[in-house]
Write a structure and sequence with these properties.
Length: about 575
């Protein structure tokens, strides 16, 4: 008989174990399916919507699709997106539009930033159901528009710095002092405008000192190194034996200084310099003699011009260096072909033509031929220069009175009566020039009074001329040159003409005069003519008269010598005109 221990366990039932494992598995599968279904439902419910609690710039957009959220955001920001922005700078306020600032809202990007997307990620589903932040809108900035606005604000609300400058005007140095400005920092301004956009805040900008690029030190260096030396004295250009001396007042306009790499550097107007140098030489390469002109009643020398052919670059390339040199080094030889003038500037100055020594004016009634003929004679005489010992000839200067020489027909005196011929009226030039010579104290060589007296001329001090027969001549017997100036103020139907002849030199004599009484009268005859060129005339007596000229040294009361002029006038006959052929 076999005995069993009551404590010995019985063998497990394999079938029962299998059934229990199946139940556990089924439970687990159910749980998985339950969770998966719920997660799927949560995913499907969230979709690509924005987290429920999301706001952008204070506008609630949560729980909406991206498209819906963008629309809601646009509607919510409609007033603020277009509202002007107040910009404050140093107590000044100016409103600008967002469009002018280049600011706009990127609605899609703002929604995307808030989390509007579809994803199986648990964190995404968690954020959707439990999250959502209050975010700022995504702002687009048109950088070109923003830059333009900031530049305008800087101009309106700030001040640009003033660079120092050095210029040359009227032969003098003109300095512009540098001045600091008030500037707006572009990056700070941009950030402030973006921050103020969509808010109720102002864009607060600050001004900070803006230093000029050319400061006091740069200006002083320009003065020391170039400007002051440049105008310290004349410069001389040497063309062969001719020297063109340019004064600072002449060449200053060709100089300049410009800002370059934070400094002032010399500059040159080459066109003006070429013109300036050309003014000292002849235009066509032929030499031009020195001459004179009268300015404000004072004679001055017009320098001679050598005939020069040269390369302008030889001057312009070296001129800036030349003007900055010190005294004694301000001269430059220019390679050139040179033809020297016969009458040089030195010759002209040696004549010592410095002042007016006489002037005389005569008047004449209106006649167009007088305006033409006297005007042409004055034009030819004007500017004549007599060197010491030289003799003036009116016929020699004026030339033959022809149409080709600019003259027309006018009345002359022939055989004691008026006739018409070319050059009538030129005797007005002879009389006026004679009187200017008379009071200048020059030596009378030849003069012939009119055959009968014309009352618009000074009695006993007048002269006539006729080409090839009668001339007016006088000699410059002083040690100085004499410049003759002749000016005509033409006559009109309502006013007399005026002819003035003046002489310029260094005063050598003080001249006074005395006119005696008329004497030895001769009665006029009467002529009856039937010629086609007869002009009627009411006659008057002839007579004789004496005029004295007294010479004293300038400033002296002592008479040096005197001179007597005797004139005998024939009668001016009465002329009666008859029809041609009526007198047998």
């Amino acid at each position: 008989m076999t005995l069993w221990d009551e404590t010995t366990p019985t063998e497990p039932d394999p079938r029962r174990e299998r059934e229990g494992g199946r139940v556990v598995w089924l439970v687990l599968v159910g749980l998985v399916l339950l969770v998966a279904g719920g997660y799927t439902a949560a995913y499907l419910s969230a979709g690509d919507k924005v987290p429920r609690g999301a706001t952008v710039a204070g506008v609630e957009i949560g729980g909406r699709t991206p498209e819906g959220a963008a629309s809601a955001l646009e509607a919510g920001l409609a007033d603020r997106a277009d509202a002007p922005i107040n910009v404050k700078v140093d107590g000044s306020t100016e409103s600008v539009s967002p469009e002018e600032a280049g600011l706009s809202v990127d609605y899609a990007a703002s929604v995307e930033q808030a989390g509007g997307e579809q994803s199986w990620e648990p964190t995404r589903l968690w954020d959707y159901y439990t999250g959502g932040d209050d975010l700022d809108a995504v702002v687009d900035v048109d950088e070109d528009a923003m830059e333009a606005l900031v530049k305008r604000l800087a101009g309106d609300l700030g001040t640009e710095p003033t660079d120092g400058a050095v210029a040359f005007r009227n032969g003098e140095i003109v300095v512009t002092d540098p001045v600091a400005g008030d500037a707006i920092d572009p990056d700070e301004a941009r950030d402030a405008l973006v921050a103020a956009y969509l808010s109720d805040d102002d864009a607060e900008l600050t001004l900070s000192p803006s230093q000029p690029e050319i400061d006091d030190a740069d200006v002083q260096a320009a003065l020391d190194d170039f400007a002051n030396p440049a105008l310290s004295g004349p410069v001389t250009l040497v063309f062969g034996d001719s020297r063109i001396r340019l004064q600072p007042r002449e060449f200053a306009p060709v100089l300049g200084m410009k800002a370059e790499d934070g400094a002032l550097v010399p500059s040159l107007n080459t066109k003006k310099l070429t013109t300036l140098v050309a003014s000292g030489i002849s235009d066509d390469g032929a030499p031009v003699d020195a001459s004179f002109e009268v300015v404000d009643g004072k004679p001055r020398v017009i320098p001679a011009k050598p005939g020069v052919t040269y390369d302008p670059a030889d001057v312009t390339d070296a001129f800036l260096t030349l003007v900055a040199k010190s005294e004694g080094e301000r001269e430059m030889k220019v390679e050139a072909t040179v033809d020297e003038p016969e009458f040089t500037t030195k010759d002209a100055r040696a004549l010592k033509i410095k002042e007016q020594v006489s002037t005389f004016t005569t008047y004449f009634p209106y006649a167009e031929y007088r305006n033409i003929n006297i005007g042409r004679a004055a034009e030819l005489v004007n500017g004549t220069v007599l060197e010491p010992g030289e003799t003036f000839s009116l016929n020699g200067v004026v030339g033959e009175r022809t149409r080709e020489n600019g003259f027309t027909e006018g009345f002359i005196i022939s055989n004691g009566i008026f006739k018409e011929d070319l050059g009538g009226g030129v005797s007005q030039m002879a009389t006026t020039t004679f009187n200017a010579m008379f009071f200048a104290g020059l030596e009378d060589i030849e003069h012939k009074p009119h055959s009968f007296y014309i009352d618009r001329y000074p009695v006993g001090r007048e002269a006539t001329v006729a080409w090839g027969a009668v001339d007016l001549q006088f000699r410059n017997d002083t040690p100085y040159g004499v410049l003759i100036e002749a000016n005509l103020n033409p006559s009109t139907g309502s006013s007399q003409g005026e002819l003035t002849v003046s002489m310029y030199s260094t005063k050598y004599w003080d001249i006074t005069t005395r006119t005696g009484d008329r004497y030895a009268y001769v009665s006029p005859a009467t002529r009856t003519l039937d010629t086609p060129d007869c002009y009627p005339n009411t006659g008057y007596s002839g007579f004789q008269i004496d005029v004295w000229r007294y010479f004293k040294k300038p400033g002296s009361d002592e008479l040096d010598h005197s001179e007597k002029f005797h004139t005998s006038y024939t009668p001016s006959d009465t002329v009666i005109c008859k029809p041609p052929g009526s007198i047998d």
